[in-house]
Design a protein that fits this description.
The chain is α+β, with helices and mostly antiparallel strands and about 90 residues long. It has a domain at about 25-85. About 20% of the residues lie in helices and about 30% in strands. The chain contains one helix and six strands; from the N terminus they run ββββββα. The chain has one helix at about 65-85; strands spanning about 5-10, 20-25, 30, 40-45, 50-55, 65. Strands 3-4-5-6 form a four-stranded antiparallel β-sheet. The radius of gyration is 16 Å and the shape is elongated.
Length: about 90
């Protein structure tokens, strides 16, 4: 997990900064990451969205998917791993 939170302003904030809310994402690194940080992703979960990024390029574009879509992906991936004898 990153030791710093990534803060961003709400899309409802005005240009002058009034009446706005800032939100922070807490990123977690994949358990499949090695100590060198190779070939891994980080995720940050929110109630309705899961954010995904490359752990080596944390300022690069990120992918955001609906929480139910991320859950369906994980269910599929776990089933495929179990079918192939992987844990």
């Amino acid at each position: 997990m990153s030791d710093q939170l990534m803060w961003f302003k709400s899309s409802y904030s005005g240009g002058e900064g009034g009446a706005c809310v800032e939100v922070a994402l807490s990123w977690r690194k994949s358990t499949y990451s090695d100590s060198e940080g190779d070939a891994c992703v980080e995720v940050a979960t929110c109630p309705t969205t899961t954010h995904i990024r490359d752990s080596k390029l944390t300022v690069s574009p990120q992918l955001a998917v609906a929480a139910h879509a991320w859950g369906a992906f994980l269910t599929y991936a776990c089933a495929e791993n179990a079918e192939n004898g992987e844990s």
